[in-house]
Amino acid sequence: MNEKAKESHRKASRKYNETKEGKETRKKAYQKYRSTNKHLNKTLQRMYGITLSQWQEMFEKQKGCCAICGTHQVELKITLNVDHCHETDKVRGLLCSGCNKALGLIKTNVRTAKGMVKYIDNCC
Length: 124
Prior knowledge:
The protein contains six helices and two strands, in the order ααααββαα. The chain is mainly alpha-helical and 124 residues long. The longest helix is centred in the first third of the chain and has 15 residues, at 3-17. The relative contact order is 0.07.
């Protein structure tokens, strides 16, 4: 295909992609790709430096449960989150979104966590 034909094809593709049908087609293709292990593996490697196999090993080691509260994956609406240290990037385990958010809010400060436990023990 010569350069003129390639450019004509690119223009037609861009024009189609702006149509409702084109947007829907692209959306479906992206959703299909995101549902693959290939996408998940790339995401885990990019964000946490682990492979899908390593994630699965952690999942099995934790018996499919959150490392903090013990809630099983089947009880959750979304997949367990990869928890990691923001200073060292070391992966610590898999958490439910609630525990992951709580840990993030206290900035993994042990003194704060102990203070929260003491507060709860004294109030209840």
